[in-house]
């Protein structure tokens, strides 16, 4: 009987341990915003929609509304780059359009507020609430669902609308390979944030210079017994003579340029007098 109680207690402790681990992982999992369409998770992996962004207009047009009583409303959405449509949707990431009225465009989202990692492993883009000129407030949340077979993506789940007094909150599920961890190129992989060859060479140069200075000082101090400063600096005579060498080089260059300019001026003047 006591053995059964011990087994049950061990099993209970094990289950509790697993629950704590899982719950702790959920609490710890975050996705820090990089830009409007990218975030870096706490595990170091990146979710980025940059690869499927439309550079000159919305990449996803006419996204249908799921609510049957509002089927005339569709949404145009661009993950990263803002676009403009008509006189109402200016510099936006998402615009609501009425199929029965080409003039009725409503602004929905302009800037990403944050990214949230959900318990099921999906990530939600939470856009900053947008209030239009008529003091009507709209908010948008897009849940990113990972599917390696979907590229660029599928918005078949549509948009579900929830209405509140003077408030419309829109939610959408976007299924794509780019919704997976490192599923598509991130800004650091495909953008200008890569280190250039010049930057790499400068980093290597200064690293070698630092090693040279430290090693040289140690050798002169402990092997050669030099204690005075700045003589303890390696090749001190050479470095001390650099300003003088630079000065001589500048003077030589200026004299050469001046001599060349004078010679050219004299030749051109002589040629002019010959013609006269």
TrEMBL record:
Q: Which InterPro entries match?
A: Autophagy-rel_prot_27 (IPR018939), Man6P_isomerase_rcpt-bd_dom_sf (IPR009011)
Quote the subcellular location field of this record.
Preautophagosomal structure membrane
Q: Which residues form the signal peptide?
A: 1-28
Q: Does the keyword Transcription apply?
A: no
How would you describe this protein's topology in the membrane? Answer: Single-pass type I membrane protein
Q: What is its main location?
A: membrane
| Keyword Zinc appears in the UniProt entry | no
Keywords in alphabetical order, please.
Membrane, Protein transport, Signal, Transmembrane, Transmembrane helix, Transport
Transmembrane ranges? 195-219
One Pfam match, by short name?
A: ATG27
Q: What is this protein called?
A: Cation-dependent mannose-6-phosphate receptor
The record lists the organism as: Porites lobata
């Amino acid at each position: 009987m006591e053995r059964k109680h011990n087994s049950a207690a061990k099993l209970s402790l094990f289950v509790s341990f697993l629950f704590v681990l899982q719950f702790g992982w959920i609490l710890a999992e975050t996705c820090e915003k990089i830009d409007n369409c990218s975030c870096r998770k706490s595990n170091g992996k990146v979710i980025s929609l940059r690869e499927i962004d439309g550079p000159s207009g919305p990449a996803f047009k006419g996204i249908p509304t799921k609510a049957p009583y509002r089927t005339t409303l569709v949404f145009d959405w661009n993950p990263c780059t803002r676009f403009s449509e008509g006189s109402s949707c200016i510099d936006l990431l998402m615009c609501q359009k009425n199929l029965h009225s080409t003039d009725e465009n409503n602004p929905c989202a302009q800037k990403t507020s944050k990214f949230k990692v959900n318990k099921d492993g999906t990530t939600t883009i939470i856009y900053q609430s947008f209030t239009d000129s008529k003091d009507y407030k709209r908010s948008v949340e897009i849940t990113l669902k990972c599917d390696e077979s979907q590229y660029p993506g599928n918005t078949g789940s549509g948009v579900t609308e929830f209405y509140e007094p003077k408030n419309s909150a829109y939610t959408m599920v976007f299924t794509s390979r780019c919704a997976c961890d490192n599923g598509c190129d991130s800004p650091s992989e495909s953008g200008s944030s890569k280190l250039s060859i010049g930057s790499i060479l400068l980093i290597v140069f200064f690293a070698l210079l630092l090693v040279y200075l430290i090693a040289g000082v140690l050798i002169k101090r402990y092997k050669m017994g030099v204690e005075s400063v700045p003589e303890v600096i390696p090749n001190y005579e050479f470095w001390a003579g650099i300003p003088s060498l630079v000065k001589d080089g500048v003077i030589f260059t200026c004299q050469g340029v001046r001599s060349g300019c004078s010679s050219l001026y004299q030749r051109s003047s002589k040629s002019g007098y010959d013609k006269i």
